[in-house]
Amino acid sequence: MTNDNTNGTKHHWWQRKPLTPDQALGWLELRHLFIGQCLVLLLHLLWMPVWLGLPALLAALWRFQQLRARVPRAGILLRLAAISLVAAGLFLEYGQMLQLEAMIGLLVGIYLLKLLETDSLRDGRVVCGLGFVVLASAFLHDQGPLMAVAAVLTVSWLIGGLVLIAGARARREALRETAWLMGLSLPLMLGLFVLFPRLPPLWNVPQLNEATTGLTDSVSPGDIAALGRSDALAFRARFDGELPATSQRYWRVYTLSLFDGVRWSRATTEHLQRALGGASSRYALNSRRVSGEAARHHYELLLEPDPRPWRPSLGAPLASDREARYLVDGTLEGLTSLNTRELLQLASSGAPPSTAPQWMQRLNMLLPDTGNPRAHEFARQLMQQARGDPRQFLRLLFQHFNRNPFHYTLTPPRIEGQSRVDDFLFDSQSGYCTHYASTSVFLARSAGLPARMVAGYLGGESQGSALDGEQELTGRQRRHPQPRRRHHHGTRRQRHRRRQ
User: Which end of the chain, N or C, is less surrounded by CB atoms within 10 Å?
Assistant: First the structure.
């Protein structure tokens, strides 16, 4: 197909004479750009606030009324006010602007309001180019096949907009040229899909609801919706003689005893002293050795740098080659943080502390006065079925996890509010070890059993045998989160084994 220009020369249909930069866009071009905005917005609406469609509609109405000379051109104050209202709405929606969804929403809002100042050929190209960027950000929500098909259709429409404002005289011609351009790009797209290695998205930004495996001083089940595995080295352990049995390879790091309804945190020595009084030696002892049980394991730890002072231990720590702080909850704390690698010789019992002070048992029964009513009732019913026997209560609880459709996943749905245990236990039933540990400890406390959450590293990679019978284990951050749950009833301690 060919077309004649004003000089009588013929041009093929894909050879278009572009509009002049100062030529105003008409109804056909603006309508096409607006439909493109709606298509891009639809890719986000499953995850973004529905009200984002309102600024798109108002901007389009204003712009089309401007074409009919019924309203003036949108001034700088009107455009700034519109963007400010969108930003304020997103802040009210998410509570902050640093969250990824809020930032994507602001990008979408700016794109939709761009139509207010779209007059010339250059403005139209900017709208289409910005549309490609906003469309790409939709893949931060989902990368499934339906999203891919919808994105291809939307890209086709945006390319059609570029063709239209570049000089196409009819919609059919613009459609044919768009199909031609998409066909030219298809071999390159397929080649890159097959041959190019899969990489993480280049537009990734840190999110408050994402994290990687590792140890923290507090946990809040439900905040993290995507937990990545970290392969970073945490420590190396060398034993004199044979390695401990697999069942004894749990490296205690710290305990979480305080629960405010959302977050589990540790009861520090300073916190306990302020709340309960008494000498600091009641809660922690600075020494090289503590009296009590006989040591079952003797080993050497090569610890990687860490800003926190915690030292992993196989069971209750009993002795070290340098002065350290032995806490009343059976964990070990260095007197300084690890700025460099540190070599430490330790002896430990291989088991949790065998006794717990009466005041600590009371501490490990505290729960907030409000929140999680269904979990409280469920714990009461389980204890009735167990006839008051703590071991039978735990057995029934773990049977509940095994016999119901609970799933272990590193990408659980987010849980918010003050009844997160209820939401996990009865609704989502999906999560990783923090969800199961938090729920188990909460239910135990609701049933009147002292309980706390113990966090650390499980297992370790065997490095084989050395000449003198020495063997090594390597602990990595990906071994966490595997917090072990300790349920106390007098001197009894039950260990909950997490289902994979």
Answer: C
Strand pairing report for 310-311 and 264-265: unpaired
Q: What does the pLDDT read at residue 190?
A: 79
* 8 Å CB contact between 428 and 412: yes
Give helix 121-137 / helix 100-113 axis angle, nearest 10°: 160
DSSP 230: P
Q: Residues 438, 500: contact at Cβ < 8 Å?
A: no
How far apart are the C-alpha atoms of 334 and 325, rounded to whole Å? 6
Would you call 78 helix, strand, or coil by DSSP? helix
Q: Torsions phi, psi of 218, nearest 5?
A: -155, 155
- Cβ neighbours of 458 (radius 10 Å): 17
The 3-state DSSP class for residue 488 equals: strand
Whether residue 115 contacts residue 37, with contact meaning beta carbons closer than 8 Å, is answered with yes
> How many CB atoms neighbour CB 183 within 10 A?
9
Spatial distance between the Cα atoms of 121 and 163, rounded to a whole number of angstroms = 11
How far, CA to CA in Å, does 460 sit from each of 60, 99, 455?
A: 61, 35, 15
For 148, 221, 261, 358, the CA distances from 209, given in Å and listed in that order, are: 25, 11, 18, 38
pLDDT attached to residue 65: 80
CA-to-CA dists, residue 490 to 357, 390, 395, 437, angstroms: 9, 10, 18, 20
CA-nearest of 412, 400, 405 to 375 is: 400
Beta bridge partners of 344: 301
Helix (H, G, I), strand (E, B) or coil at 356: coil
Q: How far is CA 363 from CA 270, 356, 495, in A?
A: 15, 11, 19
Pairing of strands 218-219, 264-265: antiparallel
> CA 401, CA 383: separation in Å to the nearest integer?
16
Q: What's the CA gap between 335 and 466, in Å, rounded?
A: 32
Residue 190 and residue 147: Cα distance in Å, rounded?
Answer: 17
Instruction: Look up residue 134 and give its two tokens.
Output: 């906003």
Q: How many CB atoms lie within 10 A of CB 118?
A: 21
Residue ranges of the chain whose pLDDT lies below 50: 1-19, 199-209, 211-213, 225-228, 466-467, 479-500
Is the separation of the CB atoms in 297 and 348 below 8 Å? yes
Q: Which amino acid is at 340?
A: T
198 vs 388: CA distance, rounded Å: 55
Residue closest to 38 by CA, chosen among 166, 182, 154, 122: 154
Q: Supply the DSSP string of 6-73, one letter for each residue.
A: TTS-EEETT---PPPTTPBP-HHHHHHHHHHHHHHHHTTTTTS-GGGHHHHHHHHHHHHHHHTTSSPP
Q: Give yes or no for a cis peptide into 481 (omega within 30° of 0).
A: yes
